[in-house]
Amino acid sequence: MYYINTDGVKIEINLTPPKKIKSAVKWVFDKIIISDNIFADDLNNYLLPEYIGSSHYLGDDGYIFDTSDNLLSDVFLYIPDNNYVNPEGLNTILSFDSTYASIEIINPIKFTSVSPCDFRYLSRDGDYLLCLSNTSLNGYIERIKIQNDFEFIFLNQKMIGFLLIRPLEKLVFFDDINHENENENENENENEDKVPLSSSEKNIFITYFDLVDEEGWDKINDGDLLMLSKINEIKNNIIEMNTQHIQLRTLYKQCDFIVNNYYSI
Question: So which domain of life are we looking at (predicted)?
């Protein structure tokens, strides 16, 4: 038997032959969204009698299961602010091959979600984002792929985190996500010819996520001026690059949001 929500009320699931989730993956800094409707798990929907799953408005994560087949169809996942301090240990997970599967809830109920994730790690080459429970990795590890670039990580059949491949390509500023969904087909065609980020451009993201971790947010909330200076430096570096990459424009908007909402007088 497999389980999700193991830090809350454990939810039993089956891994079934894959039924591909068609929604694109979006990363909006503090959460992962796999849904064409960013309000799919809001309270209006959650309170419907037929709703199956959880809501990230009431807990950490939102899992929505299709009422026709009980398969996971939409996901809203919390990303912790703590950075992973022992990336060498991640090789254990990455050494395993991934397997395509769908997730079927056995008892179709509503539940309150508790994220298993304690840490995040954005790889130094920007190729993956891993969010993981602070647990020993001794045991049977499985990478279950539910969408082309997204996998759940299971340890001894219990979900302990998730892996996002090519995360920088999925990064979207929250206020822009509706526009992204409306133009999804057009964007997918454009992505085929997209120029990849250079190493120096990727390093700007690494700098941001190393800086704006849980301790960094505490400093921001306290009005720390050194943090303000460093965030403005990231903004200036993006301007100096004069890049057309939408990912860097997204990061600029995020930095601008912090400055305007936490430091404006």
Answer: Bacteria
